[in-house]
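Q: Hi! First time doing this. I have a protein sequence and I read that you can turn it into a structure. Is that right? Here it is:
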Amino acid sequence: MITSIENNGQGAVIYQHTGACQVKSSNLGVIKQWCIEHLFTYEGYAKAVKQTLGIAYRVPLYLREDLQLFPTRRIRDVDNVWINAAAIKTVTPTTHGACLVFHNGRRLELDMSLHKVRRQIDVLDTIRAVKGKHFH
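A: Yes, that's right. Below is the predicted 3D structure, encoded as structure tokens:
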């Protein structure tokens, strides 16, 4: 299971439960490619979320039950990290933000508040509910 996607000097690193994988494109490029593989564009998805839920910034991405991603910053920021909410075991506050512990034990310190992390997870739950209404 993927835990996060972070940019680096060579492109992006996709962190998984079993290790990490370096790719040449940015983390946003990876996100856009995964959207295409799920038969939609990220831009179209973000527009639909804005029209349906009124959320225009830091739009979380629900691809499937085990891949629910949210950005920690503006999506084009080089230091943005995409976090897979489905891989999070615990979230705790820190002095400068929040600490995530994933199911595989990996820890990730964010300069994003606990409130913002929880809000992103809540938005993902709302998106899942809206998508579920259309397919069941």
